[in-house]
Amino acid sequence: MPNFSTLLTKHNITAVAIGHFDGVHRGHKQLLSRLGEYGGLVVIDKNKANITPKLKRAEYSSYPCFLYEFESIKDLSGEEFIALLKRDFVNLKRIVVGFDFRFGRNRAWDKHDLVRIFDAEVIVVDEYCFNGMGVHSSTIREYIKNGEIAAANALLGREYSIEGEVVKGQGIGAKELFPTLNLEIKTYLLPHSGVYATRTRIGNKTYGSVTFIGNRVSTDGAFSVETHIIGEQIPPTAERIAVCFVKALRKNQKFNSLFELKEQIQKDIDQASQYCGVCELFLGKK
């Protein structure tokens, strides 16, 4: 684990793990376990919708992250890329990578070239499997896009979470249905449209919730991400919140009246209440 008593910077870090680290999932944790207390992550960032955008990776890895924009390094040779890292991390003594690591222009260099080029320790970590399945960010992304939240969470080793700013909704929730917090989500990969049992974090407190993603086909047809806090008054000062997905409840569907919609939302709330009280995942489990 990193040395929290010392501010870790490029100047005192002695080990780095290199990769995209989208999700910081169970497989990535195998690389992190080889870093030691003076470690950091070299994150190759492609600026796409992510499971863990930008420096959010540091929150889940507990290591400092140093972003290298893909566009700025894609034309470097393997030798040039390693030379860049050695200039940036002047005390670098160890590089940790995954079994399928490739780098340099057109991904033409591999783990064997890394051993040849880097004149210190190289650790190559084998593929990690969980419940018989290889753990990869691409697989997790597909699960999330398909709304298979339980499967995605199992490979992540945590509940999938998104964050966004609270924005004004259509205005009928609190008056005719149930009050919701409407979110503007910019950089996260969104689950498939539907209704989910969730946990919503506002400040330092987490609430049981039910969250809708998709077009409001029963009202104005607009796309929205909105969450209802179960059994609690919504804090009026909420500006930015996080939503953790626990279980998919149902697909998006159209109702003929607000009365029918409200009845279904009540059923969603009752169902979500059964799942959002206790986390089934051991977040530190490998």
TrEMBL record:
Domain of life: Bacteria
GO molecular function: kinase activity; nucleotidyltransferase activity
Domain Riboflavin kinase: from-to ranges: 155-277
Keyword ATP-binding annotated: yes
InterPro entries with a match to the protein in the record: FAD_synthase, Riboflavin_kinase, Riboflavin_kinase_bac, Riboflavin_kinase_bac/euk, Riboflavin_kinase_dom_sf, Rossmann-like_a/b/a_fold
Family: Belongs to the ribF family.
Catalytic activity as recorded in UniProt: FMN + ATP + H(+) = FAD + diphosphate; riboflavin + ATP = FMN + ADP + H(+)
Top-level enzyme category: transferase
Enzyme Commission code(s) on record: 2.7.1.26, 2.7.7.2
Function: Catalyzes the phosphorylation of riboflavin to FMN followed by the adenylation of FMN to FAD.
PANTHER family registered for this protein in UniProt: RIBOFLAVIN KINASE, RIBOFLAVIN KINASE/FMN ADENYLYLTRANSFERASE
TM region positions: none
Protein name (database record): Riboflavin biosynthesis protein
Pathways per UniProt: Cofactor biosynthesis; FAD biosynthesis; FAD from FMN: step 1/1; Cofactor biosynthesis; FMN biosynthesis; FMN from riboflavin (ATP route): step 1/1
Organism field: Campylobacter suis
Pfam families xref list: FAD_syn, Flavokinase
Keywords: ATP-binding, FAD, Flavoprotein, FMN, Kinase, Multifunctional enzyme, Nucleotide-binding, Nucleotidyltransferase, Transferase
The organism's taxonomic lineage, starting at the top: Bacteria, Pseudomonadati, Campylobacterota, Epsilonproteobacteria, Campylobacterales
Classification via SUPFAM superfamilies: Nucleotidylyl transferase, Riboflavin kinase-like
